[in-house]
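User: Modeling request: complex.
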Amino acid sequence: MYGFLIAIGILLLLSIVWMVYRIQTLVTVVKGSDKKIASGSNKVNAFLFVAFMVVFGALMTWYSIKEFDNYQLPIGSEHGVITDRLFWITMAVTGVVFIITHILLFWFPYKYQYDEKRKAAFFPHNNRLEVIWTVVPAVVLALLVISGWKAWSDITGPAPENAHVVEIMGYQFAWEVRYPGMDNVLGEYDYRLINATNVSGVDFSDKNSFDDFNTPIVVIPKGEPVIFKIRARDVLHSVFAPHMRLKMDAVPGMPTRFWFTATKTTEEMRAELNDPEFEYEIACTEVCGRGHFSMRKVITVVEPAEYKKWLAEQKPYIVNNPSLVADLPTELKELAEISISENK
Amino acid sequence: MATAQSALHSATAHDDHEHHDNFITKYIFSTDHKMIGKQFLVTGIFWALIGGFLSVLFRLQLGFPEMDMSFLKPILGGWIDDTGALNPEFYLALVTMHGTIMVFFVLTAGLSGTFSNFLIPLQIGARDMASGFMNMLSYWFFFISGVIMFISLFLETGPAAGGWVVYPPLSALEQAIPGSGMGMTLWLIAMTFFIASSLLGGINYITTVINLRTKGMSFSKLPLTIWSFFLTAVIGLLSFPVLFAAALLLVFDRSFGTSFYLSDIYIGGEALSNTGGSAVLYQHLFWFLGHPEVYIVLLPALGITSEVIATNSRKPIFGYKAMIISMLGITILSFVVWAHHMFVSGLNPFLGSIFMFLTLIIAIPSAVKVFNYLTTLWRGNLIFTPAMLFSIGLVSFFISGGLTGIFLGNSAIDIQLHDTYFVVAHFHLVMGSASFFGLMAGVYHWFPKMFGRMMDAKLGYIHFWLTFIGVYLVFFPMHYIGIAGFPRRYYTWTNFEFSSMYTDLNMFISIAAILTFVAQFIFLFNFFYSMYRGRKASLNPWRSNTLEWTTPLHPGHGNWPGEIPSVYRWPYDYSKPGAKEDFIMQTVPLSATPESNLPHEQELVKLEKEIISEEEEVLIANESRES
Ligand code: HEM
Ligand SMILES: [Cu+2]
Ligand SMILES: [Cu+2]
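Assistant: Request completed. Predicted assembly structure:
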């Protein structure tokens, strides 16, 4: 029934549009305005450009100001302050260009709309102008690039020696987090060792892996460098921590990394934002299949002292599951067992 | 000389053919560039509707995530589950197909295919393309490609679903997503045909422009449209083969157990034997085409705009030479910036720096073009035909989207913005909408030449304003969402705290997108109605200078019934001081316009007289030979 009514409504609407269209065509033919070079619509269109500019400019300004706190995510890392500054500098520069060019683009149509009595200026070229608007953008862009390049080199440069290592491995559809334990050295891994009990394929014949452990959330200390060692075990993923201004693809067969320093603990951020629920999050930004939109991981930033305490409380893989080292050669196995008893 | 002779020769040959054309040779397996152009156009419009419809589907999901979509079951069948929710894998397939269709089928084939074919011979003064047969093949390869892609939409496992860039391993492994099974196979076959089509077309465009220009049509007298089609074809010719290589290696990895892109993979409960491949290699190969491709899509639109803006400003395009140099610069630079799509792919950061510098260089010619357009409008005498409106719209999108490119090209800033909605906003404005507007400008402008009738201007105005406002309402808000960090290709954002806001804005975008899509039916009506019932066009309705307006209202195969006209001046003599009218066509000799000649042109008059007399000799000689 509804469908029938809607269909009739649409049909009526269409026939009205059709009639208006026919009448309109006939009127233009009668008035002979279809013979004119520029009909009355020329004025209307010229005016609409200006109107569009005013209305849209107002909307844009209003919304950009009103929503600022929503779209400007709080910054949780040292380099994030720098890249955000670059972002807003670029915004200022391009914003000025955007406004000036659009004022010209929409005002010219109004100002220079067709007039039979006038003739357009014959102004085919002017080398001075061309040079100016080649050189000025070149210089401005060079300045932007150079500052961007400095920031980029610092961010992607080698991590400090003392950086805390965290391994993040993407798989369909979650992240697996592995810590190197007290020695701060991750044990080797091999994708052929992966199975239900060893999801990251840790190689337990490497002594460095004896104190490795995994956790359901990423815990890192504030104010100290942290390096994410990133890999994937099936398809591409990408680690994206929006508040940290951090993003790096996870590639099967090619480990990547990203180091940074957090500047505010989760608690501090909660207080600052007045949002007791706030969490730093990790999302996936490389399409990886059905669950791409749900690969959430939480990062908790804590004070360094608290971090030390937390670290000491964690139980290595082999403590939680001694069968992982059951098949090792005797010498290694003894070492592993010592390590297990120490960590109990 | 030789060209003129052979052109004459083929003209007589064509005249003989004319009578034997039946329906099949005229409308289906036509070798006439004009018909092939129209075939590309209509096929492109068909694909635009499909691509647009797919986007409406996924915008429904994004704008109204809770919605009960059961009413779509008749079309989507099993992709809607019993609770009325869209299948997330099918969501990805929709996004993938939308991207592939729009980039390749609509904005490459639909734009380049239509206007390069239609305009190159008409504007350079040639009887047809260098090889009409190859040209026909080009269309039919494209057609086959489309058929295969279309079939893939209806597979039980769905079409390809790894994003339009189809990065492996996702696109290589059926276990990873069902779309990577048969759907991906068909995608690869379809793209192979598409690449063949592009190459056949491109070779033809290049050869034609180089060899078949009429007398006097030197490169420095070519309309900017032709320059842009020419350079587009060059870019395509150099970059599409690389996509083919990338696709071929992917086929090997998928079907023959090689490891070009695959390494160290554990999936579906088993460790694959592939080692030593590199997923990043594929990205290099893909973007080596992918970035030039965005200019393949954009340059023809810019060429069309140059022509339309100059004509309707009644003013020469400002900086003709600068425009050509910019396009040349873009052509060359477009091959050395590809890795800016890969700043955070694990690429060596040093390479990242290099590509950041190169990328920002390419922004300079783009800026020059914008300033030249603005100066062309300045002190013009503007007539707002629908084509002119769309061209001004294009310039606006080009500015808005180009400026956000400066953020993205800065690798430090791109860390945050990569693969967020900011990128989506960027390329939909600068590539999607700008090129789409170029396509529309071209259709409105050359419709009288294509079909001998006028489109309705008022409907054109309504179509323009609804679309222009609509596009901004859809894509501008995406900047905010992108700055807020919303990732691309997400089925829903509610799983994360940082992206659990802006549900209202997303709803707004979806509504705007649907309305904008609906507004396109105004165009469709106008297009097909005017084709049969539109007002009869005059020979040169826009009072334009270029050669196509010297042909008869319905040019036959061979374009000019008699001699091909010679060309004596550049195409932008609008509002020349001293001239009676505000335009002088390219076919008017300088010697005929002493009142408006510039000093250096007065010099050329002597030379021209010689050419004309020489030409007359040829004519007489020919006539005596024929009789
Ligand atoms: C002003 C000069 C431009 C610069 C500096 C620039 C820069 C960039 C950068 C760096 C990206 C990668 C962003 C990311 O994925 O994180 C990008 C994406 C893109 N750009 Fe541009 N761009 C410019 C102009 C253009 C033009 C003229 C077009 C098309 C005609 C275009 C089309 C695209 C497309 C399609 C993508 C996204 C591809 C994808 O990831 O699916 N850009 N641009
Ligand atoms: Cu993902
Ligand atoms: Cu690019």
